[in-house]
Write a structure and sequence with these properties.
Layout lengths: L6 H5 L13 E8 L3 H12 L4 E4 L15 E2 L9 H8 L1 H24 L6 E2 L3 E4 L3 H16 L4 E4 L1 H8 L7 E4 L3 E3 L1 H14 L3 E3 L6 E5 L2 E6 L2 E10 L10 H4 L3 E10 L4 H6 L7 E2 L7 E4 L5 E6 L6 H16 L8 E11 L6 E6 L2 E5 L5 H17 L11 E2 L13 H29 L1
Parallel strand pairs: 1-2, 1-12, 2-9, 12-19, 18-20
Antiparallel strand pairs: 3-8, 4-8, 5-7, 6-7, 10-11, 11-12, 13-16, 13-17, 14-15, 15-16, 18-19
Helix pairs in contact: 2-7, 2-11, 3-4, 4-11
Bound molecules: flavin-adenine dinucleotide.
The site of flavin-adenine dinucleotide has 43 residues, from α2, β13, β17 and α11.
Length: 440
């Protein structure tokens, strides 16, 4: 697959210097992985007084954190309303997780503010229209439970949604007011700087290659040296590789494609998403759209990564923007790139204990910007011992590999065409119904 390159790489401010590990040392906590989860954990753990070392194979934000769409979404996947989360996790954990998620938009924007991070951002809400009349109704019905869970949201009918988004044809749905958008790579780099300022040590270019239980704790080996610590957090997400097979085999890696257009005229900017509130509908193969801070539309979605699919993806996703926003000048792909999310079967995140003091958090699916930021703060509290596993936001479980992990990579190949077909049927059915009503 040929990539034109990530827009965020072109426009994000540079990150801090993080020299590779050189020699052997000890710490209270080793965090492996410098995405939002690892960086937020390191920041909060260092602030709480733990001697914290973060090891990153490449550089801060190299993984999904520096490649995502930058939607700050204080809500779980649309299939997971409060009732469904309660069914899956039990009342106590569901309440804790829903509270954490509800506050997670504020967590992101507050962290940026408090630490003076140089992160282009807009906290003007996140829009979730239904993709059909039935989805619109489902979202409207879910609002009271979301409000009760502390989510700052309201329902917008079809006209309000179209007026606010400037996108004709959208159904009604939810606006989560504490959500918004950020430049994700700028945020990852800002978190790294803040973690260093709080006292954490970050070593980039320092892949953990082995984890060995060693007396009272763990020894983490990298090409440049080792770190010994009583506690270790694996925050390697979909890039875990062979470092921990039990962690890797608990998720399905899903490739997500992103494309950014050329800079568009001010007239378009004033018309489409004029409030810079990003939009993502309830389609299984979600339609998502936002502006970059330099005036480009960004969209994307799941792709099946084989052969020369990149060129097709570029054309396909640009033409998808035009289907929703027909009145646009010709669009060109000025940047395109991919990243991998760690998906779980029930779309819920996991906190796994691999051994005494050795944890892994994974599976924030496509909701990791806000959720990992908030989860990192919770994990830091667990690491300080000020809370127990029993009181943690997520159930802390033994590893639960998927039944046929060697087939995990195949799942998207089956899921994508099937879910796109269902989306088309549902959206088509509802467009027909709407048309029928208009004609009556
Ligand atoms: C294209 C795309 C779009 C998305 N859009 C959104 C969105 O708009 N909103 C949203 O909420 N979520 C979105 N997501 C999901 C979100 O980006 C992720 O859930 C989140 O970034 C995960 O953060 P993380 O820290 O767990 O993992 P990552 O950011 O993937 O970080 C893992 C890190 O671990 C490092 N690593 C791996 N192995 C080792 C090792 N052995 N030693 C040292 N380091 C190692 C990697 O280099 C990497 O930097 C999107 C994801 C993708 C891919």
């Amino acid at each position: 697959m040929s990539e034109i390159g990530s827009l965020w790489e072109q426009i994000a401010p540079a990150g801090p210097a993080c020299p590779p590990l050189d020699g052997d040392r000890k710490a209270d906590l080793v965090v492996i992985g410098g995405g939002f989860l690892g960086l937020s954990t390191a920041l909060h753990a260092a602030k709480a007084g733990l001697d914290t070392v973060l090891l990153e194979a490449q550089e801060a934000g190299f993984g999904a954190s520096g490649r995502n769409t930058g939607f700050v979404v204080p809500s779980l996947k649309s299939a997971l309303g409060p009732a469904e989360v309660t069914r899956l996790m039990g009342k106590e954990h569901a309440e804790r997780l829903l509270r954490l998620v509800a506050g997670s938009g504020r967590t992101v924007f507050d962290l940026i503010e408090q630490h003076g991070m140089d992160v282009p951002r807009a906290q003007n809400g996140w829009l979730q229209p239904g993709h059909s009349a039935a989805a619109d109704k489902m979202l409207k019905g879910r609002l009271p439970a979301l409000l009760e869970a502390g989510v700052d949201a309201d329902y917008l009918d079809r006209d309000q949604m179209q007026t606010l988004s400037g996108i004709p044809g959208l159904h009604g749905g939810l606006r989560v007011k504490s959500g918004g958008q950020i430049n994700p790579l700028a945020y990852a780099r800002g978190l790294a700087r803040a973690a260093q300022a709080a006292g954490a040590t970050i070593h980039a270019g320092s892949a953990a290659t082995a984890l060995t239980e060693d007396g009272a704790g763990w020894r983490v080996t990298t090409p440049g040296g080792t770190v010994e610590a009583r506690q270790v957090l694996l925050a390697t997400n979909a890039m875990t590789g062979n470092l921990s097979r039990p962690m890797r085999n608990g998720i399905v890696p899903v490739t997500i494609f992103q494309v950014a257009t050329q800079v568009l005229p001010d007239e378009v900017r004033a018309r489409i998403l004029p409030a810079m509130a990003p939009v993502a509908d309830t389609r299984r193969h979600t339609f998502a759209l936002r502006w970059s801070e330099d005036g480009r539309l960004i969209t994307g979605g799941m792709v099946v990564p084989f052969g020369n699919r990149m060129e097709r993806a570029r054309r396909g996703f640009l033409s998808r923007i035009r289907q929703f926003c027909p009145d646009l000048p010709p669009l060109r792909a000025a940047a395109s790139w991919t990243g991998t999310i760690a998906a779980t079967i029930d779309a819920l995140p996991r906190m796994v204990r691999f051994g005494p003091g050795l944890y892994g958090a994974i599976g924030c699916n496509g909701r990791g910007v806000a959720l990992t930021s908030a989860l990192g703060a919770e994990i830091a509290v667990l690491m300080t011992g000020r809370t127990t596993e029993a009181d943690f936001a997520l159930p802390v479980t033994d590893p639960r590999p998927l039944p046929l992990p060697q087939l995990n990579g195949l799942a998207p190949h089956l899921w994508l065409p099937w879910s796109s077909l269902l989306d088309r049927i549902e959206a088509g059915r509802s467009a027909t119904t709407h048309q029928d009503k208009k004609e009556l």
